[in-house]
Amino acid sequence: MSIDRRRVPRYTAHLKGILGLRDTGVQLSVIVEDLCVLGCLLEYAPTLQVQQDCELTVEWEGRKFHTPAMVAWISKNGQVGLAFHNKDPENQRQLREICAALRLKPQEPLPKENG
Prior knowledge:
It is a single chain. By secondary structure, the chain is mainly beta. It has one domain (3-104): Thrombin, subunit H (Beta Barrel), CATH 2.40.10.220. It is 11% helix and 44% strand. It has one helix spanning 89-101; strands at 11-21, 27-35, 39-42, 53-60, 63-74, 80-84, 103-104. Strands 1-2-3-6-5-4 form a six-stranded antiparallel barrel. The protein is globular and about 30 Å long. The chain starts with 10 loop residues before the first strand and ends in an 11-residue tail after the last strand.
């Protein structure tokens, strides 16, 4: 497990979203399980490829949040990690507002070192 993935707090989201694939124009219905200001965990999206460009849309309190993203990793059971490429200050403010309203996930302990 990479410590790099845990640079910021994660929040339990369980939000419905739409993932737009830039290269094909396909839109997939997804569930955002965890959310943070750097990215998110999608419950199940096995048709995606690592480094695939996409755009995530999530509706929150009557407003739509859109962010460009890239598939960072895919697990064997189909979970997908997205890294956000969000440079717009208003968009970042909205993402922080969403995260602040969600429940903070407990931090997992670091693996014990051998030796």
